[in-house]
Structure formats: structure tokens, C-alpha cells
Amino acid sequence: MVRKVAASSFLGNFIEWFDYASYSYFATTIAQVFFPSSDRTVALMQTFGVFALSFVLRPVGALFWGDYGDRKGRKGALSVSIVLMSGASFLIGCLPPYAAVGLAAPALLLLLRMVQSFSASGEYAGAATFLGEYAPASRRGFYCSLIPASTAIGLLAGSTIASVMSANLGEAALVGWGWRIPFLLAGPLGLIVHYIRTNLADSPVYERMTKALEAKGGAAAGDSRAKASSPLRTLFRYHAKELVISFGASMLNAVGFYTVLTYLPTYLSETVGMEASRSSAITSVCLVLYVLLVFAMGRVSDAFGRRKVLIGACVAFIALTVPAFVILNTGLFWPVLLVELALCAALTANDGTLSSYLTETFPTGVRFTGFAVSFNLANAVFGGTAPFIATWLIWATGSAMAPAWYMVAVAAVALVAMICSHEHSDRELADI
After folding, report:
1. pTM here?
2. Where exactly are the transmembrane stretches of this chain (predicted)?
3. Which end of the chain is more exposed for a tag (fewer CB within 10 A), N or C?
4. What is the CATH number of the domain that holds 170?
């Protein structure tokens, strides 16, 4: 059962991030299809603007799926969300271009991105919660690191497809039909994940809570408040401090992840002037390292605790980011590769630990809601906007270093949050 839960969690999250990778790595192509403009920067900002606007529904989706998962079970929420998420991605691959239907094309793109974002808002949090509640306490960090690993593998798959297609297809073929292929693949993959999830049992921690409430008429200690009222109301009334700290901890994940693994290829090609195929190749190498290190960081957090590892990640970003961007702006292949690998290593310390940390922060009755709200709100405000803000900061300041200082500021806020945080890595989830 644990293997089936791990497989469904991996594939569901893979689909979500394969879609996001495809959108990011084909951003310049999508800009030509849906936002024709004589100014390349304006078209690119419009494309990233749709990317950012789709995140507006992330917090709304987090409230919906968190409530669904805490009231009716993790399995049911994840089974429904994957169908909506993969279906929206599939339909993006079927959209007509601006040349055929005019403004209806970008409007439909935005609509489907919002549906996809609404559905995906429960995927990361739900999959991590589901898997964390199955995992033994001594290896919870390692098991939960499968979620960010699947994220990186999704991005790696998207990056690889983008690199191969860019190298073998002409611009006319990419604009005409090539960019559609990654989105169309989401349809059949989503149906496979839906089938696996409908044949799973709900998590033992959640079922134990439900049975205890039924046996005691809803008066089980700790969780009765979540059942007596809405999970959201309980979350804000009794766990507001944990929610704020979790939001702060998730900020670095949001900005760091979207900047290092999805925005930098565009930054290197559009701002620095590096050849697009070389910048994509560097990102692919970094994603391989990310997958390897994220599992290692999960094991490290099992041994030393989540709090220490997350604090270390914040300090690393504060110290490394500005020097790293100085080297990135040289445009030299090997120095850029080494710098991106260093940033990627710092990122894995955060990402490989955050999913287990957030799972351990909230009690069972509000765990899905607390994880989903804090994680998705941070991603809506700071993650989805990261490429747009980075592009705008460069345009507004005239400095290619502006995104680096933005990341340093976010890392400083995350550090304060983690200093104020808890340590529950050695506890059973049912006892939190």
C-alpha cells in the first residue's frame, strides 16, 4: 500500500510540474502563438503574466481541497483533483492560436491555466500529507522528499523535451504544433493516476482519527474542534501562529524554486544572451543533481531535524545568491553551470525538507488545510509571480542583478520564520 501511495503521489505531482516546465521552457514560443507583439519583452511579460495570474486561484483551490481532504479524506480529494488538473493541461494543447481566433486565444489560455492551477493547488499538499501519514516517523523526511523529487523529474522531463524539440525542429514547427505535445501527454497520464488513487485506502492516521470521533461522538481530543466547525475556522482560531510560520518558510521554496529551476533558462537566454539550448542543457544537469540531493536532504532532516536544515537553506541563499548572479552574467558555460549547481544544492536543503516539515506542523483534523493554505498562498504571492517580477525588476531598474536582491530579501524573511519554528520530526503524526 505504501508503494502504491508513493507511486500515485509521484505521478500526480509529476504531471503538475511537467506542465509548468513545458509552459516555462516554451515561454518564448507560447508568446508568439498567443501574444504577437513587435516588442519581444512585452510579449514575454504577457506570457509570464498569464502564468502569474493563474496563481490567483491557488489559495482558493487550497481552501477547497484542504476542506475536502480534511472532511472527506485525502484519497477522495486527490482522485478528483487529478482529473481536473490533467484535463485542463490537455485542453491547453488543443487551443487555437491568436492568428485564428484573436483575443479569444489568450483568454482561453488564461481560463485553462486558472482551472489547472485551482486543481493543482491540492496536489502537492495532498500528496505530501497522504504519503507522510503512511510513512514511519523515523523515515518521514525521506518518504516526503519523493514529492519534491517528482517535481524535479517533471521539470527535467519538460526541459529535456524542450531541448530535444528546439534542437530538431525549426521555429515554424515549434510555433505551429511542437509546443502542444507536452500538454497533450497530460491527458492519458492523469487517467492512470486517477485509476491508481481510486483503488487506494485512505491514510491510517486519518482513518484512526475518524474512527475515534465516531466512537466518542466527535469528542476525540485535539481533533474534535476541526470536526465541530470548518477546518479553516479551526486553523485560524487555534493554529494561526503555525500558519504564519509555515507561510514564511514556504516563501523561500516558492521564489527559489521558480527562479532557479524555471526562470533562469529564460534569464540566461533573454537577459545574459546565452544560447537557449545551452541554458536549457545547464538546467537539465541541475535537475538531475536536484533529484539526487533532495532524497539525501530528506534523510539528513530525519537525522538532524527539519528546523536545522531549513535554517541552513536560508543562510545559504542569503550568502550565495548575489555572487552567483554576478557569475551568471558572464554567460560562460562552465562558471554558469557550477553556480547553478550551487544554487540548486541550496534549494534542495529547503525543498527536500519542507514537505515533511509542513506535514508535521498541523494536527490531523486540519493538516491538509494548513499545509495547502500556507504552501499555496506563498506560491500564489511569491512563486507564480517570480518570473514576472524578475523580468519587471530588470526592466524597471535596468540592472540584471535585481532578481538576486529580491531572492536575498525573501530568504531573510524565511530565516526569521524558521528561527521562530518548532521541531516535530521525531513525533508520530497522530500525536501532534
Report:
1. 0.84
2. 43-65, 77-98, 110-131, 143-165, 177-196, 243-264, 276-297, 309-326, 332-350, 371-395, 401-420
3. N
4. 1.20.1250.20
